[in-house]
């Protein structure tokens, strides 16, 4: 399954109601075959602009971030469920970028060019390759350019 991040903006409400809204959101993920890896509360703050959802205008929201693994075929179903939820002001699903692992080669790169491993490999490759030779014979019986 592919890792995703789901950002929720819930309406500002008391803790028991907020807890039940978070459980509903989590149960939707579980019912669709997903796994929640992490739940993070980003705080309650004012939104950059007024948003009107389900006929009610909102100026502040509680921000939550779910990190989860979800089957890609179920994302539309999950978004449809969250769209019907009255407590959810805004929801966004982002594909999480998996950081690439790399090996530090700073010590090798600080060496002078003749001593670097990749430069030595290029020199060996150049020595092994057969360079094409220029052929003077063009197949013509005469020299096309007058001297």
Automatic annotation (TrEMBL):
Name the Gene Ontology biological process terms: translation
The protein's matches in PANTHER family, at most eight in alphabetical order, are given as: MITOCHONDRIAL 28S RIBOSOMAL PROTEIN S6, SMALL RIBOSOMAL SUBUNIT PROTEIN BS6M
A Gene Ontology molecular-function term?
structural constituent of ribosome
Give the record's family classification: Belongs to the bacterial ribosomal protein bS6 family.
Q: Which GO terms describe its cellular component?
A: mitochondrial small ribosomal subunit
**One Pfam family here:** Ribosomal_S6
Protein's recorded name: Small ribosomal subunit protein bS6m
């Amino acid at each position: 399954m592919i890792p995703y991040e789901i950002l929720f903006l819930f309406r500002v409400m008391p803790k028991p109601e907020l807890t039940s809204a978070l459980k509903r959101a989590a149960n939707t993920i579980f019912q669709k075959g997903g796994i929640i890896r992490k739940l993070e509360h980003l705080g309650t703050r004012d939104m950059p602009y007024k948003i009107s959802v389900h006929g009610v205008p909102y100026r502040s929201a509680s921000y939550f971030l779910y990190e989860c693994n979800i089957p890609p075929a179920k994302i539309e179903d999950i978004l449809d469920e969250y769209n019907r939820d009255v407590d959810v002001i805004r929801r966004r699903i982002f594909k999480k970028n998996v950081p690439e692992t790399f090996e530090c080669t700073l010590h090798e790169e600080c060496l002078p060019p003749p001593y670097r491993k990749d430069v030595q490999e290029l020199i060996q490759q150049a020595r092994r390759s057969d360079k094409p030779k220029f052929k003077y014979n063009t197949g013509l019986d005469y020299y096309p350019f007058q001297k």
